[in-house]
């Protein structure tokens, strides 16, 4: 694993590689441009993880995990097509994931970044609750103190322009809770995350992109912190 000493930005060549992949999502295209992917996208991505991880540990929690490797904080660009009708072999973006604790990264709440050629998505939370986590989530939402704390965290996150709440799934409140519960909508979630899309800033090509990203993630991170504190490890 090679990581440079400092993040210098995502070169234009790396973003153009993603544009080309959107136009020609084929193994042939990827193989021809593999060197560009490695040098102008994957290597800067590793440096970005190191730099952003340091910022998040200072701003959000000293326990934030940032692993500069594929299947660590950098998700695979290859798509899993085994159970999908969409057989395109590659994603047309780069996903990053930062989390707390010792459990495998995808089993914990976290902070995420999705880099596209023209936009960037930032988010915080968890995209699916397994049964033990779902039970713990519902109990905490129903509790007056922890439930109000979650409402406060969501209000702070959605105060950032463009940020919305996701994870609502069920049409009815679970039968163990009153249908008119003051947080009935949150009880109908099977996951909880807040996220927003931004036009890719000019700073993406330089070191300042780390601070730009960290500032926004810090605003929405209280949702991740609440989930991390609430869900079983």
Distance between the termini: 28 Å
Would you report the number of β strands?
6
Radius of gyration: 19 Å
Helicity range of the residues? 40-55%
| Structural category | alpha+beta
Strand order of the largest sheet: 1-2-3-4-6-5
The fraction of residues in strands falls at: 15-25%
Low-confidence stretches: none
Word description of this protein:
With 233 residues, the protein is of the alpha+beta class. 42% of the residues lie in helices and 17% in strands. It has helices at residues 12-23, 27-32, 34-59, 131-142, 144-158, 184-187, 208-230, and strands at 64-65, 94-100, 110-115, 119-126, 164-168, 189-199. Strands 1-2-3-4-6-5 form a 6-stranded antiparallel sheet. A hairpin with a 3-residue loop joins strand 3 (110-115) and strand 4 (119-126). Helix 5 packs antiparallel against helix 7. The longest helix is centred in the N-terminal third of the chain and has 26 residues, at 34-59. The radius of gyration is 19 Å and the shape is globular.
């Amino acid at each position: 694993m090679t990581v440079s000493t400092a993040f210098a930005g995502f070169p234009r060549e790396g973003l153009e590689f993603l544009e080309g992949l959107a136009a020609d999502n084929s193994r042939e295209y990827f193989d021809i441009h593999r060197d560009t992917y490695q040098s102008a996208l994957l290597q800067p991505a590793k440096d970005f993880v190191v730099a952003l991880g340091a910022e998040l540990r200072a701003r959000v929690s000293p326990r934030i995990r940032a692993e500069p490797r594929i299947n660590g904080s950098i998700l695979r660009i290859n798509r899993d097509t085994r159970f999908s009708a969409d057989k395109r072999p590659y994603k047309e973006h780069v996903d990053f994931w930062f989390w707390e604790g010792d459990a495998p990264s995808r089993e914990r709440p976290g902070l995420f970044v999705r880099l596209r050629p023209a936009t960037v998505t930032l988010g915080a939370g968890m995209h699916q609750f397994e049964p033990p986590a779902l039970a713990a989530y519902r109990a905490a939402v129903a509790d007056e103190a922890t439930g109000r704390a979650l409402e406060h965290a969501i209000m702070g996150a959605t105060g950032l322009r463009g940020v919305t709440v996701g994870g609502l799934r069920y049409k009815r409140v679970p039968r163990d809770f009153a249908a008119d519960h003051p947080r009935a909508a949150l009880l109908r979630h099977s996951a909880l995350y807040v996220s927003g899309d931004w036009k890719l800033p000019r700073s993406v090509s330089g070191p300042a992109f780390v601070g730009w990203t960290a500032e926004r993630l810090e605003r929405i991170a209280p949702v991740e912190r609440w989930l991390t504190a609430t869900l079983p490890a």
